[in-house]
Amino acid sequence: MSDIRVVLADDHPVVRAGLAALLGSMAGIEVVGVAADGHEAVREVVLQRPNVAMLDLQMPGQDGFAATRQISRVAPDVAVLVLTMFDDDDSVFAAMRAGARGYVVKGAEQEEIGRAIRAVASGEAIFGPGVAQRVLRFFATPAMPNSMIATRLGLSPKTVANHLSSIFAKLQVADRAQAILRARDAGLGVGQDSP
C-alpha cells in the first residue's frame, strides 16, 4: 500500500515544522504540502491531491472552518482532520458540519495523531478521547429548539427563526455554532463560567 499523503496547515511556523517532522518520521505517511492559513491549505490540497488535509482551526485570513468547507467542495475525496487547541462543543460541531472527518486536540500523543490520520484516510470518522466524550454528551443532551426560545421570549417560533436568520446573515455565518465562535473571537463570554 502506498503512503498516506498529507497536507498540513497551521499558522505557527514552529508548530508547522514540528508537525511536518513528526509526520515525516511515521511509517506510511508522507507530508506533501504545508500551509500557514486556510487559503494556502486549499491551494495545496488542489495542487497536491493528498489523502488527508490536517488543519488548525484558528488561522489568519481564511480559518480552518472555511478551509474545511472549501476543501469538502473542491476536493471531496480528501479527508479533513482537525488538529487544534480548541475542544469546546461549538468548535467540534462547527468543524464537523463544515466537513471534517476527524478532530484531535493538540497535545495528543504521536500514536494518536498517526491513528487519526490513518482512520480518516480510510473513510472513518475519529475523535480524540476527550472530544469523543463531548460528542457523546452533546447527543445525550437535547438542544434548545426555536419553539422553546419563542416560549421563553413570548414570540412566535417563526419570529425567532427570522431573527436568527437575520443575525446569521449580519455575522456572515451559517449556523448557531459559528455565531457562538464569532462571539467568542470578539471576546464575548471569555472568562465566564458556563452553566
Q: How do the helices and strands line up, and which of them pair or pack?
A:
Elements: E1 4-9, H1 13-24, E2 29-35, H2 38-48, E3 52-55, H3 64-74, E4 79-84, H4 89-98, E5 102-105, H5 110-121, E6 126-127, H6 129-140, H7 146-153, H8 157-171, H9 176-185
Parallel strand pairs: 1-2, 1-3, 3-4, 4-5, 5-6
* Fraction of helical residues: 40-55%
Instruction: Trace the largest sheet across and list its strands.
Output: 2-1-3-4-5-6
* Largest sheet geometry: 6 strands, parallel
Uncertain segments of ≥5 residues (pLDDT<50)? none
Strand residues, percent: 5-15%
Write a concise keyword list for the protein shown above.
alpha/beta; 195 residues; 6 strands; six-stranded parallel β-sheet
Provide an overview of this structure.
The protein is an alpha/beta fold and 195 residues long. The protein contains 9 helices and 6 strands, in the order βαβαβαβαβαβαααα. Strands 2-1-3-4-5-6 form a 6-stranded parallel sheet, sandwiched between helices. Strand 1, helix 1 and strand 2 form a beta-alpha-beta unit. Helix 2 runs parallel beside helix 3. It starts with a strand and ends in a 10-residue tail after the last helix. The model has no long low-confidence stretch (mean pLDDT 86).
Summarize the structure.
By secondary structure, the chain is an alpha/beta fold. The chain has 9 helices and 6 strands; from the N terminus they run βαβαβαβαβαβαααα.
